[in-house]
Amino acid sequence: MNKERFAVVGQPLPKIDAWSKVTGQTRYADDLVLPRMAFGRLLRSPHSHAWIRRIDTTRARALPGVYAVITGADLPPVKFGILPVSQDEEALCREKVRLVGDPVAAVAAVDEETAERASELIDVEYETLPPLMSIHDSLAHPEVRIHEYGDGPNIHKLVALQFGDVDAAFAKADLVREDVFYFEGNTHLPMEQHAAVAAWGPDGKLTLWSSTQTPHYVHRLLTKILDVPGAHLRVIATPVGGGFGGKLDPFAHEIAACRLSQITGRPVKIALTREEVFYVHRGRHPVLMWLKTGFTRDGDITGSHIRTWLDGGAYGSYGVASTFYTGVINPVTYKMPVYKFEGARIFTNKPPCGPKRGHGTPQPRFALECQLDKAAEQLGLDPADMRRRIAVEPFTKTANHLTVTTTGLVECIDKVVESSGWRDKRERFGARSAGARKKGIGIAASAYMTGAGTAIYWNSMPHSGVVVRADRSGGVSVLCGATDIGQGSDSILAYLVAEGLGIDPKDIRVHASDTDLTPVDLGSYSSRVTLMCGMAAIQAANRLRTAIFEAVAKKLEVPPGALAARDRKVGVPDDWDKAVPFAQAVELGEAMHGVLAFAGSYAPPKRAGKYKGGGVGPSPCYSYSAAVVELTVDEETGEIHLDDIWIGHDVGRALNPLLVEGQVEGSVYMGIGEALMEEQVFRKGLHKTPSMLDYKSPTTLEIPDIRTYLVETDDPEGPFGAKEAGQGPLLPVIPAIANAVYHAVGVRIDEVPITPDKVLRGLELKRQSKPARIGPDRLPVMQWKEPLVVESAFGQPAEAVVLRPFADPTPRA
Amino acid sequence: MLRLPPFEYLPARTVADAVKYVADRGADAMLVAGGTDLYPNMKRRQFEPKALIGLRGIRELRGVRGDARTGVTIGAMTVLSDLADHPTLLDHYAGVATAAGLVSSPQLRRMGTIGGNVCVDTRCNYYNQTYSWRKAIGFCMKKDGDTCLVAPGSPRCWAVSSSDTAPALWSLGARVRLVGPAGERTIRFSTLYRDDGIDYLAKQPDEILTDILLPPADGWRSAYLKLRRRGSFDFPVLGVAVAARMDGDVVREARIVLGAVASTPREADRAAAALVGERVTPEVITRVADLAAGPSKPLDNTDFTHPYRKKVTRVFVARALRKIAGLPESGASTAEIG
Ligand SMILES: Cc1cc2nc3c(=O)[nH]c(=O)nc-3n(C[C@H](O)[C@H](O)[C@H](O)COP(=O)(O)OP(=O)(O)OC[C@H]3O[C@@H](n4cnc5c(N)ncnc54)[C@H](O)[C@@H]3O)c2cc1C
Ligand code: SF4
């Protein structure tokens, strides 16, 4: 596609909210102050597993300045959860607490200090139960049950899917490798701590402002949890200071604020402390993985079988989806004709895990890419060449029936291999470098979804909707339920509508994420927003343009098809002098049609695999990434210094290259943290490091130069060809680092984070001529369920859009 | 947000003011300098003083006086960023300038003072937690409880001395001036601390640290190396300060002081003694580093595993010695293959 035909798309424009962000004027949830507002606070459990025997709030209520104290008894007796299959949470626990940090009561008071003091005056009697703090613990103690539901004692979910005959595939292989890996849990660490303000008005209607990534799901669930009609409830997502998946569930503080507001007749704010954010969590699942893969002499994969054990923490959250994601996205990167996946999510008495950036896929990607590296070495192949050879083919299906449309993976690999000087450094680095500082270079690749093909609850409505409204002032407003969590979705909406109407993004006001005013968008997760609200925005803008063109055509006495909109004018390109200024064009349109407000809707093409579980994994299209990492390992201290990262990302089309690079760099940043230092670990039932100082996440000083190469494949499914950029680029970073460490010092760290301590222990083993590997060696004994056996769809040709609901009959813009 | 507990603030204008306030308020009051250590701790209820005596307004306590020939006096209220780029310190007391420049982050170095850094509370990852966290795990003897969670059964607290500048100042033979109701005295760094995580300072609670006195530079060279997870923000989990007075290439006097491996900075005197009279050759470095690692007895109460911190002590001592001797840090540098 010719780039020249765009005016706004492809331009490196600043975000539309950049100025208010950098000048500190953005008003986050915790900045909201309403008249008569009370301050709330939650009392949380000090035990990781216990029965609640008695709660006495008398002393707290008696404290001057306290307006209300509530417990679970003050809320409708329902359990809830983001997924219909895991309704296991309570805003305030009634009978049992399952982690340190589980909320048991809430207070509203005149100020934060009083609320805190009051919460300490609530007397709770507990009867403690044995805490189960690991996958091994929970499986070894079926007699202690964290929940009563699930696929077995302390087993939340078991999944087993098989596509083709894996045994036959391994029999055909020249090399079969079995490896075990562990990926430690980690958390999102957004700068903004969660906060919410609830105001239950005298009209009996409730408004909730919250730093949420999904006002729609919060709205939907609050109607059930609080037993209020959806029509009387309004959820407004305030600007979100980072989410990364941590603000995608309905949370206790939101629910408690609503109820406290109802009781006190005052607006109530609850802002979490940093420590509470660690307990709320929903972050990366710790995953233990066993991976068996067959390879031919040339490096082709004959088949692959993966088992994953997820440490889910105390509640379901998105865990069932996470479990699927540790398996179903794997076959999208490389040609994998036969595939088997078994996954188990285990409950433990820790903060619930959930959908952190990359949702369920960084862990198996780490395993697979490290295993490929080992196989390449055994087969005598260059790891980059091998990956290039086995890259998935465009417009084909995977073994598990996912449709791959465009793929720029080969180009991504080529870009990072060339620009990094891969071949030369592969030769020179490693054992050949002298002294205690060893250089290494490693590679990895990946794929990620551009939006989940199905909503979390079954329905056939749009996944995203946009209304574009114009009036005689020449101003255009865009209304959309999408939530800007810093990724720039508001800006994307402005760019796309500006592009469609031939005006400047500055002429557009975006009103987003307000369940009263904006059409539903499901939320900012699964990298769905640019594609889905983008497609809806294009449709809405096109409809508005058509109406305007009709009116201008009449005035200029030309057919509408002869018109173009650009530079804030509408006219015939060959007779541009007569072009009508945009505001006047809108006037003509308004005079002809009445109010100009047009809606666009989007739902993904329906192509879920026709088997149970086939709904998780399909996406309109997949992004691809490849990364090369160059680093130095200090053999005396085990410290790893990253020198350079080259990353190629197939984004389909960069609607704004600046924003895409921002997303890529942010992903790299996060990947580095997970690879080298971040770990959500526990001691004596408690989070060991619930603070920004002690939970180690990289600073700018740990980040090397990041060289980003954007590859454009113009995908037929995306808005102007765009695919996702917010999550995928994280995936290759972690295994590329692990592979580079091996190249540098010959030590395999099959477990993230790769800490200096582990490197030194690996080097010690190497010195003793033992296998220089650090990683898990014990797998839980498990009874897997019979897999659902489905024929492999590998290699079948796949078309792009076959049937997309709500699409206009005309070809796409 | 975590909130400060209520307290009264008493701004002092002179040292005499401060001494008087301390005498009046006794154990109810604490001194506050930059507040970068104390305020976060108060938010987590490690301290709940009824009153704070603010030292910020005392002008006489700010600044660096003197020179390398006669010795240098640093006012306790001098902020760390002013020390990190002070020409005299950089040239003649390099270990001190380096240590000051490695404390925390630029923002905190602009607020944090040298006096506060020398008196900084000892740390332990069972202790530097919120009140509710400590309550949940069971209070320890450093605050609100009576056992030690790191070393159960131990009669004492093992919280870790976490000052970056203290080992460096100690290694250069610095002294501190203390002023209290009973008058003024000057003591060596080696007598300022006690090996106890709770009572880690040997000064009287009513004594104010007013100045730090560095002796004449007199041929001393010094270096400070810090182990921490990240290049900013983090407290030391190992600090190695090495100072040596050289006569040509022969060591005449030496001090090696380890930080963050015990409740007090720890002097590795046997190692230092092994340097005296020697040229700093690779063999000597290895021997001295092995000896220096001896007194390093970290426990599992900071970042990183404690066996790792112990292992790295050797490496850091060797590297600090190399630095002083002007040798390349370790083996070949990466530049030649980069
Ligand atoms: C995130 C973070 C990271 C940090 N990282 C580091 C680090 O890497 N290395 C490090 O060494 N420190 C670190 N600190 C601790 C602290 O910032 C520094 O030690 C700083 O120098 C303390 O100085 P201050 O003036 O702020 O002390 P304050 O907080 O004001 O006081 C600290 C203590 O010293 C006492 N005190 C202060 N001045 C005097 C005086 N003149 N006489 C007697 N007693 C006095 C106070 O009563 C108090 O007990 C960190 C702190 C934070 C919050
Ligand atoms: S060393 Fe022991 S007593 Fe001291 S702070 Fe840590 S846990 Fe508490």
Provide the descriptors you would attach to this structure in a database record.
heterodimer, A: 813 residues, alpha+beta, Aldehyde Oxidoreductase, domain 4, Aldehyde Oxidoreductase, domain 3, 3 domains, seven-stranded mixed beta sheet, 19 helices, B: 338 residues, Uridine Diphospho-n-acetylenolpyruvylglucosamine Reductase, domain 2, Uridine Diphospho-n-acetylenolpyruvylglucosamine Reductase, domain 3, 2 domains, five-stranded antiparallel beta sheet, four-stranded antiparallel beta sheet, 12 helices, 30% helix, 21% strand, disordered C terminus, binds flavin-adenine dinucleotide, binds iron/sulfur cluster
Explain this structure to me?
Chain A folds into three domains: 3-25 and 461-602, Aldehyde oxidase/xanthine dehydrogenase, molybdopterin binding domain (Aldehyde Oxidoreductase, domain 4), CATH 3.30.365; 32-129 and 191-242 and 247-280, Aldehyde oxidase/xanthine dehydrogenase, a/b hammerhead (Aldehyde Oxidoreductase, domain 3, Alpha-Beta Complex); 287-453 and 610-790, Aldehyde Oxidoreductase, domain 4. Chain A is of the alpha+beta class and 813 residues long. Chain A starts with 17 loop residues before the first helix and ends in a 23-residue tail after the last strand. Chain A is globular. In chain A, 27% of the residues lie in helices and 24% in strands. Chain A has a seven-stranded mixed sheet with strand order 3-5-1-12-9-10-11, sandwiched between helices. The longest helix of chain A has 28 residues, at 529-556. By secondary structure, chain B is α+β, with helices and mostly antiparallel strands. Chain B has two domains: 1-58, Uridine Diphospho-n-acetylenolpyruvylglucosamine Reductase, domain 2, CATH 3.30.43.10; 62-118 and 160-336, 2-Layer Sandwich (Uridine Diphospho-n-acetylenolpyruvylglucosamine Reductase, domain 3). Chain B has a five-stranded antiparallel sheet. A four-stranded antiparallel sheet of chain B has the order 9-10-11-12, with helices on both faces. Chain B has a three-stranded parallel sheet with strand order 1-3-2, with helices on one face. In chain B, a hairpin with a 6-residue loop joins strand 11 and strand 12. In chain B, helix 10 packs antiparallel against helix 11 (282-293) and helix 11 (282-293) runs antiparallel to helix 12. The longest helix of chain B is centred in the last third of the chain and has 20 residues, at 306-325. The N and C termini of chain B lie far apart (46 Å). In chain B, 51% of the residues are buried. The complex binds flavin-adenine dinucleotide (FAD) and iron/sulfur cluster. Iron/sulfur cluster binds at residues 124, 126-127, 140-142, 148-150, 157-159, 197, 301 of chain B. Residues 30-38, 40, 55, 76, 80, 103-104, 108, 111-113, 115-117, 119-121, 162-164, 208-209, 233-236 of chain B line the site of flavin-adenine dinucleotide (FAD).
